[in-house]
Amino acid sequence: MCYQRLVWLFIGTFLYSFSSIIAAAPASQLDAIKEAAEGHVQTLITPPEFGKLEVQAGHLDSRLQLSHCPSALEAIVPGRQSLNKSVTVMVSCKEDGWQVYVPVQIKLLTPVVVARRPLDRGMTIGADDLIVQLVDSRFQRGQTYTSSTTIVGSRIKRVVGIGEPISGNDICMVCRNDEVIITASDGGLNIIAKGTALSDGALGEQIKVRNSKSNRIVDGTITAVGQVVVKF
């Protein structure tokens, strides 16, 4: 009698362990499907220079009844989908004849100068006001900057919240009525003069400036805080 109880106890323990293995199998297969979808998307997109590519497969229904594929899973992006914010990947097992559509989120993170603290209109930006962070390209608007030293000394034109990227529309590297350094270049010849800005502008923008000595108004391109270049 005692021997029979031991036998049944052994059988029961074995069946419980076996059922646990069966229950865990679908979960591991779903993980493999998600990994295949993510891996395929990573092969299609070149990560940004000095940045980072992040892909994240979405949730799959745990009730899916899928066999363990005897060979490597295949993944494709069906149709003419743009590899922008998200994409749907079809993962399939040819031997067992099943396929699953997996939603995958895409993030292209690039280094961008953001506000370390709230920046109020009219304040001059200092080095301690800025920090460089990896930011999703979807949340970048207009001209942004990768080096904080580029815009230190600029003036805030509109409020920038903590953690928000600094855009060219948020600042003036040269502000109206500011005194500026004018560099007039012609080949290897450079002439430096002082002038007054007649409008606001950011890096690379063209503004009008008045030469303080000649009183002549010229078009200059902003190359740095308080500096413009004029070609003649």
Automatic annotation (TrEMBL):
<dbReference type="InterPro" id="IPR041231">
    <property type="entry name" value="FlgA_N"/>
</dbReference>
<keyword id="KW-0969">Cilium</keyword>
<keyword id="KW-1005">Bacterial flagellum biogenesis</keyword>
<protein>
    <recommendedName>
        <fullName>Flagella basal body P-ring formation protein FlgA</fullName>
    </recommendedName>
</protein>
<keyword id="KW-0966">Cell projection</keyword>
<dbReference type="InterPro" id="IPR017585">
    <property type="entry name" value="SAF_FlgA"/>
</dbReference>
<keyword id="KW-0282">Flagellum</keyword>
<keyword id="KW-0574">Periplasm</keyword>
<dbReference type="Pfam" id="PF17656">
    <property type="entry name" value="ChapFlgA_N"/>
</dbReference>
<feature type="domain" description="SAF">
    <location>
        <begin position="110"/>
        <end position="172"/>
    </location>
</feature>
<feature type="signal peptide">
    <location>
        <begin position="1"/>
        <end position="24"/>
    </location>
</feature>
<dbReference type="GO" id="GO:0044780">
    <property type="term" value="P:bacterial-type flagellum assembly"/>
</dbReference>
<comment type="similarity">
    <text>Belongs to the FlgA family.</text>
</comment>
<comment type="function">
    <text>Involved in the assembly process of the P-ring formation. It may associate with FlgF on the rod constituting a structure essential for the P-ring assembly or may act as a modulator protein for the P-ring assembly.</text>
</comment>
<dbReference type="GO" id="GO:0042597">
    <property type="term" value="C:periplasmic space"/>
</dbReference>
<keyword id="KW-0732">Signal</keyword>
<dbReference type="Pfam" id="PF13144">
    <property type="entry name" value="ChapFlgA"/>
</dbReference>
<dbReference type="InterPro" id="IPR013974">
    <property type="entry name" value="SAF"/>
</dbReference>
<dbReference type="InterPro" id="IPR039246">
    <property type="entry name" value="Flagellar_FlgA"/>
</dbReference>
